[in-house]
Amino acid sequence: MFDNKMIVEDSLKATADGFSIEARLPYYRGLGLSMIEDVGVSVDGEPVPREAVTLSLRGRTWTLDEMETEYGDRWNFGEKAVVGVKVPGGLAPGEHRIGLSERMRVSYLPFVPTAKDEKVLTLAE
C-alpha cells in the first residue's frame, strides 16, 4: 500500500465551514465508494466526528454514510479526492498536524485494512 502518499502535500485549504485536504486512495486497484468503510480525520491529535467529513470526486460530494450505498462510482488509484471537514469557527492559520485514515473492504483479504497517513500542513493566512 501507499499509505505515505495518502495526504497530498500543500493541499490544506480553508473553506466556508471548516477546511479541506486532497487525498489519495492507497490501494493499487482503486475501489467502489461503497467499499470504503470509513475516512477518518484528526487535527492536531483530536479526532473529527464522522458526520463532519465529506468526500468529493469529479464534482460530486458524499457524506460517509452516503458512500456506503454508492455503487455506481469509484475512487481510482492515484486520483485526488477532496476530503472536506466541518469545523465550527474554522481552522486557525498556521501549521497543523493532519491525520487521515481510510478503512477499505478488499474482496480477497480476510480482514479490513486501515491505511493511515499523517502530515504537518500549513494553512495560509
From TrEMBL:
Start and end residues of each C-glycoside deglycosidase beta subunit domain: 2-108
Any matching Pfam family:
CGDB
The Swiss-Prot or TrEMBL record annotates one GO molecular function as: lyase activity
Keywords of this entry: Carbohydrate metabolism, Lyase
* Family membership noted in the UniProt record: Belongs to the C-glycoside deglycosidase beta subunit family.
Question: What is the protein name for this chain?
Answer: C-deglycosylation enzyme beta subunit
Q: Which organism is the protein's source?
A: Sphingomonas prati
> Which lineage?
Bacteria, Pseudomonadati, Pseudomonadota, Alphaproteobacteria, Sphingomonadales
